Amino acid sequence: MTQPTDASAFADHADFYRRGPYARYMIDRKIVGQAPVSLFSARQPAGHFPDPAMPNVLLYLATRGTREAQFDWGCGRWVGPWRSQDLTLVPPDTASDVTLSGPHAFIGLCLPVSLFDGEETCARERLGRLGPLYAAPFRDDLLLQLCTTLWREGEDSTGYSLFADSALHLVVDRLTFLAQQRRTPERGDRLSPAVLKSVDDYINEGLDGTLRVADLAKVAGMGTARFARLFRQTTGRTVYAHVLALRVARAQERIAMDTTAGLAEIALDCGFSSQSHMTSVFRQVTGRTPGGRR
Asked: Is Flavoprotein among this UniProt entry's keywords (predicted)?
């Protein structure tokens, strides 16, 4: 069977996966609600997976993560771990470029732009406000439950259509709320608790590797300079000092709990460049050396 190659031949991302070059990776596809909305699941190996621009908003839910992902859908390239239960949002009419380091799996919700029409705002204006969510993966327990329930219940349950319509509108409202949380007022001098939690989750996930302020800024949904300034105003310390403090805390925990590991091994596992680097930072932060903890 010949696969279509023109993006205009596909109705949405689910159709692209069903009939396009990724057809062999698709597991299942479901249609829910009156809109209607396509849901699909896929499992892919490591590799490069560019998607063409589609008219729908695409909400990904990772069901199997991978060590490193590179995403770019018009907001700059993001690099970091893509964890199970991470959510990512792709704006409409935007080609996406995705590279993943290992096997991964996900559920995709193809949300029509019409779902974002509101009583006081048109869909395009509302979609523009979702900007902070386009920059990097995020997590949310309510969206996780909605997505998994929509997928699990499928299209066969009695009365499911009414639930699906309500759930899909709640998904849209929740996305709008999360984006608003991540936006700080132009003259605001603090990062919101939700943004700080997202940043800390990202740091803790990659504490043993290289962390860049630019990547943390993308998680927060803002420019690097503004993020660094607001982070210091909110926490009282620089991003660099905060990361070092978290590395020291993790090293302290390892030293206390793992008596068989050497200090050099612990240093590398906690993101320090060497044992001497860890010792120097340890002394600055705690006033003691790592060896004094044993």
From this structure: no
